[in-house]
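Subgroup meeting minutes
Present: P.N., E.W., G.H.
Scribe: E.W.

1. P.N. recapped why we're keeping a running log of single-chain structure predictions: easier to compare across weeks, and new members can see raw inputs and outputs side by side.
2. G.H. added today's entry (579 aa).
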Amino acid sequence: MRNVMRQLKQYKKDTFLCVLLTALEVVMDILLPFITSIIIDKGLSAGSMPTVYRYGILMVVLAFLSLFFGATAGKYAASASAGLSANLREAIFSNIQTFSFSNIDKFSVPGLVTRMTTDITNVQNAFMMVIRVAVRSPLNLIFSFLMCLYINVHLSLMFLIAVVFLAIVLGTIMVITMRIFSQVFSKYDDLNASVQENISAIRVVKAFVREKFENSKFSKASGNLYNLSVKAESLLAFNSPAMMVAVYFCIISVSWLGAKFIVGGTLSTGDLTSLFSYIMALLMSLMMLSMVIVMISMSMASIRRISEVLDETPDLKDPDNPVMIVPNGQIDFNHVNFSYKHGSGKNALSDIDLHIKPGETIGVIGGTGSGKSSLVNLICRLYDVDSGSVCVGGIDVRKYDMEALRNQVSVVLQKNTLFSGTILENLRWGNPDATDEECIAACQAACADEFIDRMPDGYNTRIERGGANVSGGQKQRLCIARALLKKPKVLILDDSTSAVDTATDAKIRAGFAERIPGTTKIIIAQRISSVEGADRILVLDNGTINGFGTHEELLETNAIYQEIYESQVKGGGDFDQPA
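Output recorded in log:
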């Protein structure tokens, strides 16, 4: 709760003004029935029209003041609640940007989306009700009851009976619904996960004709959410009948007893009229207060979920005095052990001892799950090692400022991502200050200029969200060009040419040799043709080094490399390669 409320920041003033103006609005509303009784008793009953006019004008003034205070309080409430939600979204998003991959792995993407949408909306609505209704209702209830006591103590006891009855009924409902609503929000995550998975993989769904299965899966997630929501809302529906029972009880009891008091001369007609007004104000305040408590109980689950993200601290942090300059592209793995869950005993990499010279081109090959991506993720410090050390430029990566390190270690990941915008805007993710000429040169090195020149708007062609309007091979080449614009000391291609033909792959590698000769290049690939021209080739097997040497050396000494070579080359060659 403290973390969430800390995000009020510049909206604390609006919150305070809303509470103050709401309190003034309540005072105006409480005075109106009291003045009404004066008009009836001292004006109409006594036949004194000047008294009626005088107090009537006062009522109009108080009504306008109440309207002004209420409208202004509503404006400040909207500003404060919307500001709180905006700050919460910014705080969550900013914190997510600092997360390492291991932090992100803790929260599912649908779960984070739900926290930034549904949960924050719940908190926003609850906060608005707290600073408006939760201030207005208790004050109205207390002042109304005090006025009732002032008018007639005996009749006021009827209100206490109604209040106790409502407190028991509404309290029981709220205790049960709080537990149900805490389950509702976890079901929102399941629903969002189903939607996201289906839409992101819609081509696969259609290719395998799985629409009915996906509809069934979504219906099940939606049905679970529906059942819980109906259960909670059905219980909340008892609020209104309980409220009406209390209202009718008070009206009947006050009418019956009030008539006796009027006949006995201990209560005036004006006092009875104002008592009825205070009855409705008191009971409506209690009803509104119950709604606030329900809303707060709903939002508490949301607050806990939001706080989980805000409280999450990045696993990776910059050192106190970080190194800001990467000297060169030398890479050293010194007996590295690494697992995705520290202490689990299931190593993704075991005892990796590897030394790469600046400017070398290193090929990395191995079967699925052999640890190729895990190896390169450690170079740019997307994860930290369990033991041993990874050094770039002769310095442990944990001593670098992470931004400085990642600016000099450029990675084209296995899953290529483009963002909505023009081709030039996407390329300048690599270097925001790159000129058009530098962007064109990078595209030429990545062989992306071939298809860009054929596009109607060339480099100003708009890329749809996720790169939906370009092919897989075109997307890969644009991502490689984007990485080249960083002019890195180390360039890592994590199976980034898998969707291009071998001729284009060869052109890209030739472009690297010509344009970035001093950059250390690590090329992860499944094809022998992509790595056979490398200075040395690393063969990984089950997270360990199985072989390291030139293409010729591995053909003579390494069984895994020999098997891959024979299956690809002697088995018919790579795709698009002439027989």
